[in-house]
Amino acid sequence: MSTPVTVDDIIQTPSIITSTVTTGAGEEVLFRPLAMDDTKLLGVYFINLSAETRDMFGPHPFDQKTADRLCEELDPRETLRMIGISEMEGRSRVVGYFLLRFGIPEGTIQRYRGFGFDLDDAQDCLIAPSVADDYQDRGLGSLLFRETIEIARREGRRHVVLMGGVRSVNERGIYFYEKFGFVIAGEFESRGNNFDMYLTL
Question: Is residue 66, in this structure, part of any structural domain at all?
Answer without folding.
Answer: yes
